[in-house]
Amino acid sequence: QDWLEKAFGLPGAEYARTIVWYPKKNVWSQYVGTFSPPDLSKWIVLASRGKATVQPLASEEGKTPQLPTKAEDPSCQGAVVFKEGDGSADADVLAFKDEVVADKFKESMKKKGKKKGTSSSSSSTGSNSPPFMSSKRLPRPRSKAGKSFDLNAEIFEDNVLKTPSYWLVWFKGGGEDASEAQEAAWNKAARQLKGMVQFGSVNASEKDAIMNQFVLPLPAEGDESASVMLFPSRRAIDGEGEEADKKKAQAASWITDLALEEKAIVDYSLSLLRDSPSEPIYRLDASQGRTLETWFQGGNGPVTARLMLFPSKDLEEPPLLLKALEIEFGQLLQFGLAKKSDAQMSQQFQIQKTPSIIIVAPQGVPKEGEQLQLGIIPYQGHMSFNAIAIHIESMIRPAPASPPGGNRGDRTPKDEL
């Protein structure tokens, strides 16, 4: 990857990039769009016909870059090396084995027949799972509404501690069993938040295992009746990786004055989004010189893709939906808010209706004196957090696999998106 980024002039990025390279002309083009087979196939066909927008290679004097050799790159120790006299054009050039997905995984998928009345998702996790899937991440509901997830010690870390979101987790069974009214209030509140704040519940049988395994704080003296714990967003935590996971567990706190009533839970959750620390959302306004061009000139550099919201009216403050998306994807995208009254901006991006969302991604890093080439991806789905999050994840990072331990006899939930 380091060699590819150097050869094509691509600074490191956290989202996936697909390119086509024309060796004879020594030019290349970058794909901008959703990572789905139909869209990729259409682009590959156009590129094969020479209809893709191309740019020269960034290597020295436009020379075709040489593949690294085993001696030059210690990270390639597992690769096969061609030797002189074996019929290859170049000596000591690396040839990597095609082992992205194990054959036994493909064979196991062939054996799985989709039977009537059963779910097509796997009911267990194992070594046959593709390496790019996180088997313990729960999939987002394909619904406009949010939901409360049933959590246990096995999946708690991957979903609560390793994600950027705010989590409200209800630990049941402190003193007395949860009433039906409390269950209903909790689930209704989760639906109303629409995924912008994540909700989870833990049964009494799992509480001690989770508390001990992740060293979660105990309620303060006199607050033993507290049952809901807040896990802050990653924006409020310094550090990365395992260090941030531990800090998120340490920063968790019991909410002592929260009544298990729908309105109280909803009001508290919305206040988290309103008061959340987040990166500034760029306010686009052509009349003030705050254009897409000036936005790309600042910030984290031109390599970072931008998401722009065109609202149905001029807003004084960014909507909570945009803030929630920034909390969730702020490490992958930058976020901007346009004005409804800015006709010039809407015309520039051919916005036909509002609210609308587009994602703007650079097609490469321009050389000195050249203009930045941008690709525009319009979002055409439902204007809800879950729908937009699923769309973003389909483009820039693998979506979570199906949850472990599911009941194969369960009905597949209705897809509202």
- Euclidean distance between termini CA atoms: 35 Å
Percentage of β-strand residues: 5-15%
Number of helices: 12
- Please estimate the helix content: 25-40%
Helix- and strand-based class?
A: alpha/beta
User: Would you report the number of β strands?
Assistant: 15
Spatial arrangement of strands, main beta sheet: 6-8-7-9-10
Oligomer: single chain
Rg (C-alpha, Å): 25 Å
Specify the biggest β-sheet.
5 strands, mixed
Poorly predicted regions are 77-106, 112-134, 398-411
* Order of secondary-structure elements: HEEHEEEHEHEHEHEHEHEHEHEHEEH
- Structural shape: globular
How would you summarize what this structure contains?
The chain is α/β, with parallel strands linked by helices. 29% of the residues lie in helices and 15% in strands.
Describe this structure as you would to a colleague:
The protein is of the alpha/beta class. Helix content is 29%, strand content 15%. It is built from twelve helices and 15 strands. It has a five-stranded mixed β-sheet with strand order 6-8-7-9-10. It has a five-stranded mixed β-sheet with strand order 11-13-12-14-15, with helices on one face. Strands 1-2-3 form a three-stranded antiparallel β-sheet, with helices on one face. Strand 7, helix 5 (180-193) and strand 8 (198-202) form a beta-alpha-beta unit. The radius of gyration is 25 Å and the shape is globular. The two termini are 35 Å apart. 23% of the residues are buried.
